Amino acid sequence: MFTLVIIGRPNVGKSTLFNRLARKQMAIIDDTPGVTRDWRETEGWLLDKKIRLIDTAGLEEAFDDSMRGKMRRQTELALQEADAVLFMVDGRSGITPMDKHFANWLRRQDIPTVLAVNKCEHENAAAAGLAEAYALGLGEPLPMSAAHGYGLDDLYHMLSPYFEEEEEIEDAAASFGPSLTEEEIDALEGNDDFDLSAIEPQVDTDTIPLRVAFVGRPNVGKSTLLNALLQEERVMTSPEAGTTRDAIAVKWTYKDRLFRLVDTAGMRRKARIDDRLEKMAVQDSLRAIRLAEVCVLVLDGNNPMEKQDLGIAEHIIDEGRALVLAINKWDAVEDKAAAMKRIEDRIEASLGQLREIPVITISALKGKNLEPMLDLILQTHAVWNRRVPTSRMNRWLRGMEEQNPAPMANGRPNRLRYITQIKARPPTFALWVSRPGDFPDTYKRYLINGLRRDFDIPGVPVRVMIRTSKNPYVD
């Protein structure tokens, strides 16, 4: 697939164009320079051409280990993926010395480059910047407006000589009916009401990646963990908290299983968040949780299961996602037995609604115990997808009722009539009772615990919906 890398100095509108071509809000946009730090990719559309888009951090003249230097190196890594480069400058502010510096650098690269002068929605305001852009030596500048979609047709024609001729391959599987593709899933990501369980019957593990989100407090090692799995510096890491802002998704394969790993921004308590960019980053992390299948809650082994960790875990459970606890920096923990006892006690006291949460100790920095963590993710995902035959469940329901009948309702029995699993991801059951309004939560928890125990559904959310049959004589 044709790959277009968008580069330029900070705050020229790269992420705005990225979101427009992706046709959904993916990158965080703000007037503050330097919002984007890691490069991120997605599939998008330039008119009728499907392309691979890469959004990069703002180009900076920094060559040390500072934050600006790391951002520049991330951009250089992204350029290795490029079939063509879109170099953006700001038409309103004109050509700066930094633009000239990086234009000289781009001319030495063996990559087709298109020079785009952004923010040209008003010709008079950007006329000076458009005229100055000829001096950069990158050919005729393209006036455009990423915010308004102006100039995209001209961009298509300037890039069309570099598009590869795609062979039309007949899909032999088409005769078996349409299948849900990853592009269709991505198209649904912009819909806040979208639930992955809606596509459950069409899931194909060969083409649909298992979506795993690494979440947690700031500076617990989420980005280091992603880099350790990929064995490359795919995302920036720093001792400074809050390095990651955008949720960065990367495709990866483990044991012939396709994954989509998502590194998210650290989440602090709302009361401590007063920065606008941090609020936007946290919202992006919450969206990543909602779209994930398995959430790996990364904990700091030296300070595990803080109040914020518990809050994140509860949010994951409420969203119905599978949860795995990964205790990072375990090699630096001195009293491992005491630390594990504290974690178990906090889970028992605060997350009692989810029994047997899978827990694993790792060291992302040293690459220890990462394969067992991935195996645990696959096992948990399988449990999250588990289905139980209706006949077995109703025989089980009779036994549970005989062992412990539901409390009486106004002196009359509240009979359990029928139960069936209405969906997986997470396992969700519908229970028909004679008087749903008088059905206590304590008895529902009794049934949920029995479902976990007798049908081997540990460590994932289990939901029971209480229903009643319609009375045909009510009218």
UniProtKB/TrEMBL annotation:
<dbReference type="GO" id="GO:0042254">
    <property type="term" value="P:ribosome biogenesis"/>
</dbReference>
<protein>
    <recommendedName>
        <fullName>GTPase Der</fullName>
    </recommendedName>
</protein>
<dbReference type="InterPro" id="IPR006073">
    <property type="entry name" value="GTP-bd"/>
</dbReference>
<dbReference type="InterPro" id="IPR031166">
    <property type="entry name" value="G_ENGA"/>
</dbReference>
<dbReference type="InterPro" id="IPR005225">
    <property type="entry name" value="Small_GTP-bd"/>
</dbReference>
<dbReference type="InterPro" id="IPR027417">
    <property type="entry name" value="P-loop_NTPase"/>
</dbReference>
<feature type="binding site">
    <location>
        <begin position="118"/>
        <end position="121"/>
    </location>
    <ligand>
        <name>GTP 1</name>
    </ligand>
</feature>
<comment type="similarity">
    <text>Belongs to the TRAFAC class TrmE-Era-EngA-EngB-Septin-like GTPase superfamily. EngA (Der) GTPase family.</text>
</comment>
<feature type="binding site">
    <location>
        <begin position="8"/>
        <end position="15"/>
    </location>
    <ligand>
        <name>GTP 1</name>
    </ligand>
</feature>
<dbReference type="Pfam" id="PF14714">
    <property type="entry name" value="KH_dom-like"/>
</dbReference>
<keyword id="KW-0547">Nucleotide-binding</keyword>
<feature type="domain" description="EngA-type G">
    <location>
        <begin position="2"/>
        <end position="167"/>
    </location>
</feature>
<keyword id="KW-0690">Ribosome biogenesis</keyword>
<feature type="binding site">
    <location>
        <begin position="216"/>
        <end position="223"/>
    </location>
    <ligand>
        <name>GTP 2</name>
    </ligand>
</feature>
<dbReference type="InterPro" id="IPR032859">
    <property type="entry name" value="KH_dom-like"/>
</dbReference>
<keyword id="KW-0677">Repeat</keyword>
<feature type="binding site">
    <location>
        <begin position="55"/>
        <end position="59"/>
    </location>
    <ligand>
        <name>GTP 1</name>
    </ligand>
</feature>
<feature type="domain" description="EngA-type G">
    <location>
        <begin position="210"/>
        <end position="385"/>
    </location>
</feature>
<comment type="subunit">
    <text>Associates with the 50S ribosomal subunit.</text>
</comment>
<feature type="binding site">
    <location>
        <begin position="263"/>
        <end position="267"/>
    </location>
    <ligand>
        <name>GTP 2</name>
    </ligand>
</feature>
<comment type="function">
    <text>GTPase that plays an essential role in the late steps of ribosome biogenesis.</text>
</comment>
<dbReference type="GO" id="GO:0005525">
    <property type="term" value="F:GTP binding"/>
</dbReference>
<feature type="binding site">
    <location>
        <begin position="328"/>
        <end position="331"/>
    </location>
    <ligand>
        <name>GTP 2</name>
    </ligand>
</feature>
<dbReference type="InterPro" id="IPR016484">
    <property type="entry name" value="GTPase_Der"/>
</dbReference>
<dbReference type="Pfam" id="PF01926">
    <property type="entry name" value="MMR_HSR1"/>
</dbReference>
<keyword id="KW-0342">GTP-binding</keyword>
<dbReference type="InterPro" id="IPR015946">
    <property type="entry name" value="KH_dom-like_a/b"/>
</dbReference>
